[in-house]
Amino acid sequence: MRAVVAATAGGPGVLEVREEADPVPSAMQLLVDVAAVGVNYRDVYEREGNYGRLPPLIVGVEGAGTVAALGEGAADFSIGDRVAWVNAPGSYAERVVVDASAAVSIPDGVSFELGAAALLQGMTAHYLASSTFPVQPGDTVVVHAAAGGVGLLLTQVVKIRGGRVIATTSTDEKAALARAAGADVVIGYDGFAERVRELTGGEGAAAVYDGVGKATMLAGLEALKPRGMMVLYGAASGQPDPLDLSRLGGRGSLYVTRPVLGAYTATRAELLERAGDVFAWIESGELDVRIGARYPLAEARRAHEDLEARRTIGKLLLIP
User: Fold this and answer.
1) pTM of the entire structure?
2) pLDDT at residue 52 in the model
3) Domain 136-258 in CATH: superfamily?
């Protein structure tokens, strides 16, 4: 099979398409023919050697496809089933082994591409807005990078839950997309904390959802109301500078958390509940998943370059 390998840690140039042996499923695993692969910022961290496994490795963890073979004991699935996943190492490939406990059935009304595009970022938006800081009707929250893959979905989930979204974007085109996703107000990054306070009558936001990191996190504390929550779920601009915890008290007993999807899908039941909600929202039309670009598997390097340069809008997919 063909697969995208990071032979060493480094920039997008380390990604190579190679012929690799087909994986073989062990007990309680599925062998899947991959139809679409989700490209995520965590793949960049993995390629750089800063996340989980170290190179050399086949990159990626998210995708969708058709079950081709079953390992012993994988009784909940059958050959030919349509499945998606967010935690199968080596997903940038034509075939991948997926733990049966990590696979989710794709409903008939959801395509392979939507399954691969929606699951990781959709469940991220789900846990951020329903569990990490559970948005209540009337809550005003800030969504940074609101035209990105998570940002567009998170904006919609906040609106489903009755919240008000102040979105940040970097261009007029991205601002239009954030508005189309339901953002109540869209602002730029310069002086965003002051603008948020103005837009909330001086009170501040109940939460800031920040996937940008270094460029925005510390300033974002100034945008929060007393007892507000800074939810740092990513670091596209780099890891934030160290935080003097006394600032949290001085700003009114603020909270800071660094959540990850694995902790919010720690059980099979929780995984299925979150995935089920995401797929149900897609089928009902409540959640619009924007696929920003599709690349052949051989162009994974270009996909990473575009993602890191912030040239992309919505979700990126590789198509084997």
Assistant:
1) 0.92
2) 83
3) NAD(P)-binding Rossmann-like Domain (3.40.50.720)
